[in-house]
Write a structure and sequence with these properties.
mainly alpha
């Protein structure tokens, strides 16, 4: 006796079964806890980065003053108030401003020359293989060499004067800026490079329109490092030779004050170096960063 096959056994079930609908009751928002609340005055103040940094500086100044009073030896460690007094007197007399401007003017010359040479070397490194090999070799050789070690050579070649200072400043700026810029160029994505090539950009236009904006975070880091290296190299070089007592910079001012046992003026000179460094880092470079890499979304 033959059996009739089940015609429904091979039928497929529908792919999308009908979904059962649920109706949820509304929950009182007060039972969920606090989702959003206004910030307190302390939280608003704490969220301001400038105020946090000012608080740190005030705390360091208080520790400085307390330690100096506890030590009680002004020839070894003058108090913060004595340093500020000497600093203000130097500002009023104009001597400290003159010394600071002399150092800054020399620094700007060396910094500009170093950046220009770094740009040339970097463009050559990304354009040709021999340029890349030259930059890598020179960076490996000269970047670890302290600029202060070149002072004897600078004295022999250029004598006592601003030219010797500019020479060591170029060495301080050139290699960190070139190294960071070259690393930033190499990190640019191939997609962005092809976009520039497809748009017909070549040579200087390709570098300025594609590579520099894409690698500006690394370039800015190199500029910061170059500034820090050149600033401390300049002060150290002026401590060794500052042209003369009538035209030297901040380093020479510190050296002369040390010889005259005016320790408060020594610390006032060091304080001026710190103030200029804070201004450049937190005002100049900070504004450049906010208007470029932060606005472009390259940094958080």
């Amino acid at each position: 006796m033959s059996s009739t096959p089940d015609m429904t056994a091979g039928r497929r079930q529908p792919l999308h079964a009908r979904r059962v609908e649920f109706v949820r009751e509304k929950i009182d928002a007060s039972a969920c806890g606090v989702v959003e609340k206004p910030l307190t005055v302390w939280e608003k103040i704490y969220n301001i980065g400038a105020l946090r940094k000012i608080f740190i500086l005030l705390a360091l100044a208080a520790l400085w003053q307390a330690y100096a009073l506890w030590l009680g030896k002004s020839l070894l460690f003058p108090s913060f108030s004595a340093t500020v007094t000497a600093f203000w007197q130097g500002i009023e007399s104009g001597e400290l401003l003159q010394r600071a401007w002399h150092s800054i003017s020399v620094l700007l010359m060396g910094y500009a020359c170093g950046i220009a040479l770094a740009a040339l070397l970097t463009v050559a490194a990304i354009s040709t293989r021999i340029g890349n090999d030259f930059l890598e070799t020179m960076t490996a050789m000269l970047n670890p060499l302290p600029a202060i070690a070149l002072l004897p050579v600078a004295l022999i070649w250029f004598g006592l004067g601003s030219a010797s200072l500019v020479f060591v400043l170029v060495h301080s700026v050139l290699w960190p800026v070139a190294l960071n810029t070259h690393s930033g160029f190499l990190a640019v994505s191939n997609t962005l490079r092809m976009v520039g090539r497809n748009a017909g950009l070549e040579g200087a236009r390709y570098v300025t329109a594609i590579l520099i904006p894409a690698a500006f975070g690394s370039i800015l880091t190199g500029l910061k490092i170059g500034w820090a290296f050149s600033w401390r190299t300049l002060i150290a070089a002026e401590l060794v030779f500052g042209v003369s007592s009538s035209s030297g910079g901040l380093g020479w001012f510190i050296y002369v004050s040390k010889n005259d046992l005016e320790i408060a003026n020594v610390f006032a000179g060091l304080f001026t170096v710190i103030v200029i460094g804070l201004f450049v880092e937190n005002v100049i470079f900070r504004n450049i960063e906010l208007r470029t890499v932060r606005r472009w979304g390259m940094q958080a």
